[in-house]
């Protein structure tokens, strides 16, 4: 998958599984040859920097607002975007990406209200939904299946 650019979008890191899943997915996709950028809010990227201080799992970190600006200004775009969301703000980021990017959009919806939040999505995307807050295994397994389909 050399040359395929992937964006992982992280909003507020309030729900614990977001950081671990972002690190896992970044590493998995990088090992498969994807060019992965992880963009997040200030707090989300700080958590990644502390958790992965040597940049082993997340090689490229970026500010989410700057990344969106770069896409709007046509300085960058991505072939695939995974948008993490557990609240309305995360959905707004994902909807924005759906409107400004030509890439395939996957909405990773998680947290206590994941199912209800996923039902309110009105933009074109593939939904990956897990009603988990602390244990990342169910979401990891769902993402593994999605990645298998992408690689085929």
UniProtKB/TrEMBL annotation:
It comes from the Archaea. InterPro entries: MTH777-like_sf, UCP006600. Pfam families: DUF1890. This is DUF1890 domain-containing protein. It comes from Methanosarcina lacustris Z-7289. The lineage of its organism: Archaea, Methanobacteriati, Methanobacteriota, Stenosarchaea group, Methanomicrobia.
